[in-house]
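User: I want to check something. If I give you two sequences, will you return the structure for each one separately, not as a complex?

Assistant: Yes, each is folded on its own. Here is the first sequence with its structure:
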Amino acid sequence: MKKLSRKRKTLNYVSPENGVRINPMRKNKDCKFAFYQICQILLIIMMLVGFSSCQEKQEEIVPDETEPEQGEVVPDQPVEEDVDDDMEEDDPEEEEIDPGVPYDPIKNLDLYVLDEGQIISYSSEDYYRYGPSIMKYEDGSMDAWFSAPGNSGSQWDWITYRHSDDGINWGSEQTVMRPTPGSRDQCSVCDPGLIYFDGYYYMGYTGTDYYEGKGSCNSAFVARSKYPDGPFEKWNGEGWGGYPEPIIEYKGDPAGWGIGEVSFVIKDDDLFIYFSYYDINGGYIGLSKADLVEDWPSTIRFKNEVLQREHQDSLDVVYDEKNDTFFGFSINQRMSERSRLIMYYSGNGKNFEKVDSIKDHIEDFAHNMGISKGLDGHVNTDEDLLIGYAYGENWGRWNAKFQYIQIR
């Protein structure tokens, strides 16, 4: 039987455009080949475009820096780290302070009482000494004035004086101020506060002529002397000498304690006069000012409240040139087992704020303190300062003690 061979028949057709016979299979192969070439071209174009885009991004990220020549020293460049602001640690030295509450280093000062101190007067010796005013000189010597018992009759209090060459050993005591009989201070002179200028020691003091009050209805007075131990001539309302008149007069209810416990400071061309005010409703520390002239009591102007009195005692004020600051010292919780030394400050001498207080080495039942200061009421807080106060549980039976403190 004859084997039949089967051939694939190729169909051709004539192109209507040019009459050429075209094999359709051949045409399909040509089309595929052309399509393949087009794809390759497109792929090459896409690769070129992508490479160019990468180059542009690289140029944006990496700055164009000149390649250093061999041997050229290139300084280290700072590296900027991408740190999350929320995770960044605060630098205490660069911490921003709220401008509404400026940082004040004075508020960080602390009080230190250096030791148990020295008793310079015992209650068995004429009963008491209290309210010292302490003046320190450049050579380290000191003068001190105290409230002391009077004649146990019509004169309740006198003012005494002692001197020390070193602030430790104190000389004998002498009386330097008494009430003037029949005058506005006839009952008592006490609470001395001293300042020195233009050749005179000026002593502010508390006095009264109201016997019925048994210590109430006081006013503030002043006297002067060329020497710390007198004799003192009192301000009479127009000049010096004769019957005294108050420089700051109490005009409230006679049952109120009144005005007194003067503390002086000189600042610029003004005499700052601090005083205690206490009536039947409460009290405060007040401030008046005067010109630095011979008849300065006649120039006293205004009475401003600078500190409310609550549980603290009278305020002895000084000026610290180093910090350009006024400091005020007092006994808080006076005449109680909780009595302690307290310190205030003021930038302008008018508005006082508490800085610190301390109980260490301060006696229970302490009251009526004073602090050492220069002739003009200034201090150097780099040096130790001497404080003095009275203490004792029984009225009128008080020891007097001096102690050194530091402010730092």
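And separately, the second sequence with its own structure:
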Amino acid sequence: MSNAATAITGGPSYRKPPSNQIFGAVVLIGVPIMLFCLCLGAKFGLVTIPSGPRAILLFTLLVSLMLTGMPISISLGLTVLTFFFTMTAEDPQVVALKLFTGIEKWEIMAIPFFILAGNFLTHGGVARLMIDFAASMVGHLTGGLALAGIVACAMFALVCGSSVATVVAIGGVILPEMVRRGYPMHFGAGIITVAGSLGILMLPSIPKVIYAISTNTSIGALFVAGLLPGILLSAMLCGVTWYLAKKRGYPSMPRATWVERWVAFRKSFWGLMLVVIIVGGIYSGLFTATEAAAVSAVYAGFVSLFVYKALKFKDVPRVLLASANMSAMLLYIITNAVVFSFILANENIPHAIADWIMDMNLGWIGFLFVVNILLLLAGNFMEPSSIILIMAPILFPASQRLNIDPVHFGIMIDANMEVGLCHPPVGLNLYVAAGIARMGITDLTKAVMPWLITLLIFLVIITYVPEITLWLPRKLGMLYGG
């Protein structure tokens, strides 16, 4: 009888949640419901909401839905539908039309192709060969294997376009080797977490494509513009790593001969050729940036299957499926973001914000400072693609009025996204590296601090020295006045 009673009442293991947790849950669920009721009240004429508060209501509803843990894409969709059907007089068919026309842009095709190319390279053995080549070049320095990890991340970023893929590919190979050679795991994991963020800064990058689509900026110019900033960040990360390694007495590797370096380069040559194909093809006019993405996917698949032979034919369906899943997720976010941008334009929000910023007389220096703060805050609860899709259409008009170059603005946004990838609560690089290193998030967060601070210093430099970003695309004739 007592067992039956225990089963019915929940037993001694049942614990009532703390009252503060219950209150928090009620608030998280109650706020979106209250905002929805407010929209319905406006629909039926019970309340009148002026244009300014309407804009605040739009963003508050979006943020409140995201805080419930709802995916970004669903939050965007529900916000758009709620606002559209209760606060505007537009024809409902516009929503369906925008959902389809939003992904009709030719440039969007670059996203699934770059994702596929990155997955082929991740599974194709390219990372290990790049690590070997990097180690042959810098391994003899103090902390040589750690430095090789940064250089390998930079090289893989040149051909991949994904930070998470860079962390997985390089970290999965180099972290066990670093521990075997006497490096603490937290040291190696901290390096790879931040160095992996080069994946969205150097050459091809999905966030760059999304920014280009949102602002009608040249994708080719954005790709090339990330090269010098990427080299600068790599050098800064190497400098911090060398200093810490020397201070803590970490080992170096035997100096490789030039013959060994040549052999290592020759083995990694086919992977590095992808850089030449992308830059050379776009610069020569042989193909557009979107076509470069398709060529990259085909080339990466060919190299992985027939040259390095690390990827087997039986693994191809799994790679294709993973790429399709990631592409579908991003494209669904983009379609909802396109309709969200239509709502913003319909409410004249971007231009109203631009007018407000101009009235504040911040100047371009103050404006970029405010933008950096906003993006760093957004990085605490959104991933890069969502931030760009939501924030770029709002901030871009103001940047144009202040004569900030669209390419420079895009690279600055990219650098902000790098920071968000490396700290909790939603830093994807952090979680992936923690999984590889089998470390707790708190421990890894402490471990990344020296390189995260370096990344913030880099952000300031890129923000206020635009020539670092613009020099190369200008020399290649990709910018006006080139």
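Because they were folded independently, the notes below concern the second chain alone. Residues 316-346 form the longest helix (31 residues). The mean pLDDT is 83.
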